[in-house]
């Protein structure tokens, strides 16, 4: 007898499907409830810890009151505007806007993955951005006036000799785990950086000018310099403070610190949920609002989230899908995006040359495996620059949204010698220099050979997921081939690039450096920084330049210092340790949810801390 699918069977099937859906929904809700319960338990534990701290303080006060002579002062919970520190004024003004409301998330994307976000051992700008929201320094530079203002320090004095700097710390500043920040933490931070067992050669290169950092009292710390240094206040005031109780145990096990991925704890407005639990395989970095933040202006966002999206096209798709809030456009797609009505309706675009725009370059490694390379010859490096048609790259790859880089110094900086102009494309001069250096086409096969008959060929390492860099590498290959040089483009993962830099195991590499208000080139070009892990990874040494850098850094008088920097620039212009490529214009699209977007003398206020962006209540889309 044939079995038919009856109506009651259909109803039973639908009932089972509905039941299954209800079970899945219930499981999802239970999972969410467990997460919320875990968060509540954590919050209650933190509150209990804080209450214990308050009870201990009260007990101490009671004992001191019993002893007599104590006057108790009660601070106001919400200080008036004239008591808001200058460092917080911009964030405070944002919080006074009629549509301001705390909450929501800000979601950005990183173009490369990070090996680590542990301070000192990390080496990339992305890790530095994350750390800037978690750890704080004594001072902070105002993005409009460019003057230094107090952050953790409420006041400071400079000694008559210009070698000592005394900082008075704010009371009540706490790390995100509830422990108070004191002068001992500041002194410990310096000692930790300078400990040779800690893999922090880059930071030690900066801080070696400091003779000592001493906790004079619980809330006063003194920096003493070995000699005059032009940027001494910035160096002392800009040091990110490490909590002693968290990092000190790693002095007994430095390898655990040096190989760590996510040891990050500080006093800043945001924190890692687990200060020692981040790993690269998470594919993102998530910071949550620090509930113990000491600042008079609380951070606006509940969370800051960075997704690692290495592919340019995937990053644009993610932005179109409204899953990230900011997108830095490539030149070739910029005009298309401007004409996209749907995108224009929900975004704001900003086009500008950042006042502190960095530069891209090709670094020529001058020593490999203990032996000089062909790039140790200045004439060869000069020839490579003459063979690099930067103007064509800017016009055809960057579509005019860039300018040639002349040196590490911005052409708008007083460090720059205006008599120096970017070298133009000149194959004739290049071939003459290469011939002087011993490179000729000895067998008429179109390829230059050295005196031993070895062809002039080399590998160029570049980041594999940057589309513009890929196109530039192909342009360079063609340019150099016409001159008889075989360049082999080597697209490489970011983590592998960092390893190659640390080991100085490459022929040539193309990368970029960020810039500041005044660029100290010691780290990149001083001969002492060819040490393992140092940032002079091209093994470049010039004693004349070393002396000039040392003089410039020791000259406090700006009028006398700038000519010294210009002399440094002249040496670099002659030596061409890098072929300086370009400074790129920024073309940024921002979701219109984000408010208080400004371009300052330090560039876009995207990464300003205290945080200045916010999302009005009606536009918030993430649950709190």
Topology of this structure?
Blueprint: H1 7-67, H2 89-95, E1 105-110, H3 125-134, E2 139-141, E3 148-150, E4 153-158, E5 164-169, H4 183-194, H5 201-207, E6 210-217, E7 220-225, H6 232-237, H7 244-247, H8 254-258, E8 270-272, E9 284-289, E10 303-308, H9 312-320, E11 326-328, H10 331-338, H11 341-346, E12 347-352, E13 359-364, E14 367-368, E15 371-372, H12 378-386, H13 390-396, E16 402-404, H14 427-436, E17 457-463, H15 467-482, E18 486-492, H16 494-503, E19 508-513, H17 522-525, H18 543-554, H19 558-575, E20 578-584, E21 586-591, E22 599-600, E23 603-604
Parallel strand pairs: 1-10, 17-18, 17-19
Antiparallel strand pairs: 2-3, 4-5, 5-7, 6-7, 8-9, 9-10, 11-21, 12-21, 13-19, 13-20, 14-15, 16-20, 22-23
Helix pairs in contact: 12-14, 18-19
Describe the structure.
This protein has 624 residues and is α+β, with helices and mostly antiparallel strands. It folds into 3 domains: 98-113 and 283-353 and 585-624, 3-Layer(aba) Sandwich (D-Maltodextrin-Binding Protein, domain 2); 115-270, Dipeptide-binding Protein, domain 1; 359-584, Dipeptide-binding Protein, Domain 3 (Dipeptide-binding Protein, domain 3, Roll). It is 35% helix and 18% strand. It has a 6-stranded mixed sheet with strand order 16-20-13-19-17-18. A 4-stranded mixed sheet has the order 1-10-9-8, with helices on one face. A 4-stranded antiparallel sheet has the order 4-5-7-6. Helix 12 runs antiparallel to helix 14 and helix 18 runs antiparallel to helix 19 (558-575). The chain is globular, with a radius of gyration of 28 Å. The chain starts with 6 loop residues before the first helix and ends in a 20-residue tail after the last strand.
């Amino acid at each position: 007898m044939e079995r038919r699918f009856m109506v009651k069977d259909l109803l039973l099937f639908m009932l089972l499907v509905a039941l299954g859906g209800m079970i899945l929904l219930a499981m999802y809700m239970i999972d969410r409830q467990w997460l919320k319960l875990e968060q509540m338990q954590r919050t209650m534990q933190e509150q209990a810890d804080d209450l214990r701290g308050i009870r201990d303080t009260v007990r101490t006060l009671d004992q001191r009151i019993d002893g007599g002579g104590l006057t108790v002062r009660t601070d106001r919970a919400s200080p008036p505007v004239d008591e808001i520190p200058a460092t917080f004024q911009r964030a405070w003004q944002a919080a006074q806007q009629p549509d301001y409301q705390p909450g929501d998330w800000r979601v950005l994307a990183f173009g490369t993955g990070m090996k680590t976000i542990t301070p000192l051992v990390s080496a990339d700008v992305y890790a530095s951005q994350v750390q800037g929201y978690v750890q704080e320094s004594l001072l902070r530079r105002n993005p409009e006036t460019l003057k230094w203002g107090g952050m953790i320090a409420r006041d400071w004095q400079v000694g008559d000799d210009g070698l000592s700097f005394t900082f008075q710390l704010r009371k009540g500043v706490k790390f995100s785990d509830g422990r108070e920040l004191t002068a001992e933490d500041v002194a410990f931070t310096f000692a930790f950086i300078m400990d040779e067992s800690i893999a922090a050669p880059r930071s030690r290169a900066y801080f070696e000018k400091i003779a000592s950092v001493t906790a004079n009292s619980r809330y006063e710390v003194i920096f003493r310099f070995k000699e005059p240094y032009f940027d001494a206040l910035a160096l002392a005031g800009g040091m990110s403070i490490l909590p002693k109780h968290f990092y000190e145990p790693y002095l007994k096990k430095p390898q655990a610190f040096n190989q760590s991925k996510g040891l990050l704890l500080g006093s800043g407005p945001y924190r890692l949920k687990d200060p020692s639990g981040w790993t690269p395989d998470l594919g993102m970095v998530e910071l949550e609002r620090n509930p113990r933040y000491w600042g008079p202006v609380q951070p606006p966002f509940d969370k800051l989230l960075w997704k690692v999206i290495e592919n340019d096209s995937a990053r644009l798709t993610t932005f179109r899908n409204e899953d990230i809030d900011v997108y830095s456009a490539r030149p070739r797609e910029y005009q298309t995006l401007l004409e996209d009505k749907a995108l224009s309706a929900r975004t704001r675009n900003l086009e500008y040359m950042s006042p502190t725009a960095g530069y891209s370059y090709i670094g020529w490694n001058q020593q490999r495996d203990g032996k000089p390379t062909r790039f140790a010859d200045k004439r060869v490096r000069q020839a490579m620059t003459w063979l690099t048609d930067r103007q064509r790259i800017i016009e055809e790859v960057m579509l005019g949204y860039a300018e040639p880089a002349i040196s590490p110094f911005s052409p708008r900086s007083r460090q720059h010698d205006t008599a120096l102009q970017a070298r133009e494309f000149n194959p004739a001069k290049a071939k003459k220099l290469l011939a002087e250096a011993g490179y000729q086409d000895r067998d008429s096969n179109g390829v230059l050979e050295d005196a031993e008959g070895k062809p002039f060929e080399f590998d160029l390492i570049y980041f594999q997921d940057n589309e513009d860099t890929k196109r530039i590498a192909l342009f360079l290959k063609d340019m150099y081939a016409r001159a008889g040089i075989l360049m082999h483009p080597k697209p490489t993962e970011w983590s592998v690039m960092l390893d190659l830099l640390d080991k100085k195991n490459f022929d040539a590499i193309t990368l970029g450096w960020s810039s500041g208000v005044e660029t100290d080139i010691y780290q990149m070009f001083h001969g002492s920084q060819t040490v393992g892990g140092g940032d002079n990874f091209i093994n470049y040494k010039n004693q004349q330049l070393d002396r000039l850098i040392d003089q410039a850094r020791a000259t406090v008088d700006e009028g006398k210092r700038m000519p010294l920097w210009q002399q440094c620039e002249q040496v670099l212009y002659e030596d061409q340790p890098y072929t300086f490529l370009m400074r790129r214009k920024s073309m940024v699209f921002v979701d219109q949810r984000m408010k208080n977007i400004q371009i300052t003398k330090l560039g876009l206020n995207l990464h300003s801390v205290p945080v200045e962006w916010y999302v009005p209540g009606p536009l918030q889309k993430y649950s709190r």
